[in-house]
Structures are given as structure tokens and as C-alpha cells.
């Protein structure tokens, strides 16, 4: 399945429209591409208690995973600033649960559509994964 970067970038920018951000006023949108070409979008959803806030990236992942998706190719992310928005550490960790570090593409998109691309490995080197967990098992 071809990666249509421009389409994924556009979907990430559009996904900001539904952001629920009464506290930060900082909208974020994400568009997650599955290996078979489906796109799941997500926005950030804030909460008066602050910590229950969900980032746009995790909203997209949790929507997709809850629909049975397990195989992902790329995610585009766009924030409400004139600069690139890098995913937070928690979202990088969620990506590492479902995506291959050396091939999953993270596309950072500015409002004007310009973008740059990283692999998950580049943004989360030395991730703690199931492999590390198994090394620690003594039974
Ligand atoms: O990668 C990120 C970083 C931050 N946020 C959200 C969380 C919060 O609603 C707001 C400010 O941190 O931006 C995201 O959605 N994705
Ligand atoms: Zn996050």
C-alpha cells in the first residue's frame, strides 16, 4: 500500500477541528495509516483534572486498535503552532507497542503542509518493549 503523505498530512490538519482544548487552547490532530490503507484520525481531548487528557496520537491509535487494527504504516501529526510538533513520550511508547521501530514513519506536519519524517527508532531509541519485559522474567 503506497504512502500518500500529502493525504495523510491533510487529514492530520483537518483532525484538529474536533480538538477539545478548553485549558491549553492548543489543538493537535493526527492521522494514522494502517497497512491495508485505512486512515484513523484523532484529536487531543482535555479534562478539568488535567491528567486524564488524551493526546491526538493516542486517540487515533486507540480508535484503530479498538476496531481490531494491529498493523500500522505511518502517522501524521499537526499542532497549532507554526512549527513541527513532536509526539510526547507517552505517545511514542504507545506507538512502540504496535509498530516496528525501524519502519514505522512519523510525519510531522506544519499548518502550511510542509513536513518532515522520522522513523519510530529515531524518536524512541532503546524503547522498553515486550522483549525487555521477557528478559526480566525469572519464572
Ligand atoms: O504530541 C502531543 C503533544 C501534546 N498534545 C496535547 C495534549 C494537550 O491537550 C495539549 C498541550 O499539551 O496538547 C498532543 O495531543 N500531542
Ligand atoms: Zn502524547
UniProtKB/TrEMBL annotation:
Give binding positions for substrate.
Answer: 44-50
**What residues bind Zn(2+), as annotated?**
55, 88, 91
Biological process terms in GO annotation: nucleobase-containing small molecule metabolic process; pyrimidine-containing compound metabolic process
Is rRNA-binding included in the keywords of this UniProt record? no
Please give the cofactor(s) recorded in the UniProt entry for this protein: Zn(2+)
* Pfam family of the protein (one): dCMP_cyt_deam_1
Record GO terms (molecular function) = cytidine deaminase activity; zinc ion binding
Q: Which InterPro entries match?
A: CMP_dCMP_dom (IPR002125), Cyt/Deoxycyt_deaminase (IPR050202), Cyt_deam_tetra (IPR006262), Cytidine_deaminase-like (IPR016193)
Q: Which GO terms describe its cellular component?
A: cytosol
Q: Would you indicate the residue range of the signal peptide? A: none
Task: Look up keyword Cytoplasm and say if it applies.
Answer: no
Keywords, alphabetical: Hydrolase, Metal-binding, Zinc
Which residues are responsible for catalysis? 57
Reaction(s) catalysed by this chain's protein: cytidine + H2O + H(+) = uridine + NH4(+); 2'-deoxycytidine + H2O + H(+) = 2'-deoxyuridine + NH4(+)
* EC id: 3.5.4.5
Q: Where is the CMP/dCMP-type deaminase domain?
A: 3-131
Q: What does this protein do?
A: This enzyme scavenges exogenous and endogenous cytidine and 2'-deoxycytidine for UMP synthesis.
Q: List the PANTHER family hit by this protein, alphabetically.
A: CYTIDINE DEAMINASE
* Similarity field: Belongs to the cytidine and deoxycytidylate deaminase family.
**Can you name this protein?**
Cytidine deaminase
**From which source organism is this entry?**
Roseburia hominis (strain DSM 16839 / JCM 17582 / NCIMB 14029 / A2-183)
Amino acid at each position: 500500500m503506497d504512502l500518500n503523505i500529502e493525504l495523510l498530512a491533510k487529514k492530520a490538519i483537518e483532525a484538529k477541528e474536533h480538538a477539545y482544548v478548553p485549558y491549553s487552547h492548543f489543538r493537535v490532530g493526527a492521522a494514522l495509516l494502517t497497512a491495508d490503507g485505512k486512515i484513523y484520525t484523532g484529536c487531543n481531548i482535555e479534562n478539568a483534572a488535567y491528567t486524564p487528557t488524551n493526546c491526538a496520537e493516542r486517540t487515533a491509535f486507540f480508535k484503530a486498535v479498538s476496531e481490531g487494527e494491529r498493523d500500522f504504516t505511518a502517522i501524521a501529526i499537526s499542532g497549532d503552532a507554526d512549527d513541527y510538533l513532536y509526539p510526547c513520550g507517552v505517545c511514542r511508547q504507545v506507538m512502540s507497542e504496535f509498530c516496528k521501530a525501524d519502519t514505522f514513519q512519523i510525519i510531522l506536519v506544519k499548518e502550511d503542509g510542509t513536513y518532515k519524517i522520522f522513523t519510530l527508532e529515531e524518536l524512541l531509541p532503546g524503547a522498553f518493549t515486550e522483549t525487555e519485559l521477557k528478559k526480566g522474567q525469572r519464572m
